[in-house]
Amino acid sequence: MNRPSTYALGALSVLLPLLVRSAEGERPISSRITEAKVFLSGAQVGRSASTTVPVGSSTLIFTGLAEALDPQSIQVTGKGGYSVLSVNHRINYLTESPKKKEIADLQERIKALEHDWNIENGVQQVWVNEEQLLLKNSGIGGQQNGLTAAQLQAVNDYVRERMKAMKAGWLAQEEKKRSIGEEADKLRQQLAQLQAQAPRPTGEIVVEITSAVEVAATFSLSYFVPSAGWTPAYDLRAKGVGQPIDLLMKAQVTNNTGEDWNKVELSLSSGNPTLGGVMPTLNPWTLVHASPDALGELLFACASKGHLRRSRTRSRLFGNGVEGIRGHGRQHHRDQHRSIPHHHFGVHHRDPIHDTQ
Q: Staple partner for 75: which of 136, 222, 295, 328, CB 3.0–4.6 Å?
């Protein structure tokens, strides 16, 4: 009767080690930006990381990278007794908000302010209760026992001083509550802005490695991101009239990669990293020579329209391929056709037999 449970426990005992191995197989690795070479359009980002590589195969996930990095530009190098099997790229859409720590700090500060506000509100309520108690006991003595003028004056003085103290205390607590409430409202607005910012997807580089022994490995990553660049800006400065003018060149760097470049060594370049290093293929332009027959037909067409009126027209481009044109008729001399070498193209060619001076 207990066999199904036994089978279920047995299957679970087999799957658990596999799941654990799968979870342990992917190891997230954090890296830091060491340099960034900024081009007019785009930037080359360099990162470094270090970790301990266990024996066997491992899958390292370098997280927190720019979403728009070019997968074709990824380069991974390292030092240590291991071998890199493959390098891949993927997008992580489930990353937590980068403002997580700031959000947690704001929540703690708001919670502390709310606690202070409750304390001040409680103290203020004490002043209110004391005032109510004093008013309820303002009728001193019985209806049949009167008070002397001195006693009545003393009671009035006491009530007056206590009422003044209670009002002053209540107002002081009210001012404290107002100040705490204003600060808490500002923090709540800032918290709402941070919580409204959806976390941006991040890029990840997946590196599969294998090692025969456990080693301390270092990695260097490099990739290109298009969402960055710089533009030149100039300042002209002169100490006085007639003095030389100093030209100061500056750079306005833009970074829309989603990565933090604070305290990162930056270098500027006016090159274009997207151009490849492969020599382009040059397609030749072939010049086609016109045949003498075609040229003769062209000359005949021109003569028929009255463009040629001479009795004899010589073609110095193709020699005696076309003897001439008389009137509106045409005459071809095909017995002396000659081929024109390539280097004579566009050069007048003199026919030593038929040409006359």
A: 222
Report percent pLDDT > 70 for the chain. Answer: 71
Distances (CA, A) of 157 to 13, 140, 161, 203, 225: 85, 13, 6, 76, 80
Strands in 32-38's sheet, in edge-to-edge order, are 75-79, 215-225, 43-53, 32-38, 265-268
Q: Per the confidence metrics, is the pTM higher than 0.70? A: no
Q: Measured at the alpha carbon of residue 222, what is the angle toward residues 221 and 226, in degrees to the nearest 5?
A: 140
C-alpha span between 79 and 246 (Å, rounded): 47
The DSSP 8-state label assigned to residue 274 in this structure reads T
CA 185 to CA 191: how far, in whole Å? 10
Q: What is the pLDDT of residue 188?
A: 92
Cα–Cα distance between 143 and 146 in angstroms, integer? 7
- Nearest-angstrom CA–CA distance, 146 and 139: 11
d(CA 79, CA 84): 11
The span from the CA of 272 to the CA of 178, in Å, is 58
Quickly count: other Cβ atoms within 10 Å of residue 308's Cβ. Answer: 17
Confidence of residue 117 (pLDDT cuts 50, 70, 90): very high
At residue 330, does pLDDT exceed 50? no
Helix (H), strand (E) at residue 28:
strand 26-29
Contacts of 130 (CB under 8 A, 6+ apart): 162, 166
Per-residue pLDDT at 352: 43
**Cβ-Cβ contacts under 8 Å for 180 (sequence gap 6 or more):** 113, 116, 117, 120
